[in-house]
Amino acid sequence: MRILIVEDTEDVAEAILAHFSRQGHVCEVAATIEDAGHFLRLESYDLIILDINLPDGSGLDFLKQLRAAKNGVSVLVLTARLQVDDKIDALDFGADDYLVKPFDLRELEARARAVTRRKHGANEAGITVGNLHCNFADHSVRVNDTDIELTRREFILLEAFMMNLNRVLQKEELYSRLYGLTGEAGLNAVEVYVARLRRKLADASLEIRTLRGLGYQAVPGEQADKS
Cβ–Cβ contacts within 10 Å for residue 169, how many? Predict the structure, then answer.
């Protein structure tokens, strides 16, 4: 996943960043609403982890602005408040879930996976396409009864394709998922990882198409045009 962490408490933000980065996710941290808006103008995200109390305003107001702008990104709200009304407000304003501070990072990760799965229409911890099964919880991949070993970036790439079946993903979008905003590997790195993924999934019911000038598209085998 590509995650924007909007949290001004430095140690909390660093703990979330470290935990999700170890799991293979690409993250950016914004300490203010202004910074968060800047990131969103540059990139698209799978999830925003949003604190309510921020130096330059309310996270709930920022959430309302997102939804008013028809931005459907998954949002998980963090709050130190225990009042039921605050939780109801967060959900009414468009949050997909909330978590009360202090929290366990493992629960935060589980809730993050759950809200993004729901957003993409997946109710389980993984997605199956024909004989290919990808489990997002334990980062496992199987083709038929065979385990497929993927590197961290190969799994990030497969996750992007599996969560966006039939959608054309631009090379720049895939690059940002692999390396974030500060990556210096070059766009050709995307081609390298796509080629590696194709080789490892040669027997899978999934075709990763190259659309010249557009990007890449993952198509279930039964829908793939082999001509």
Answer: 20
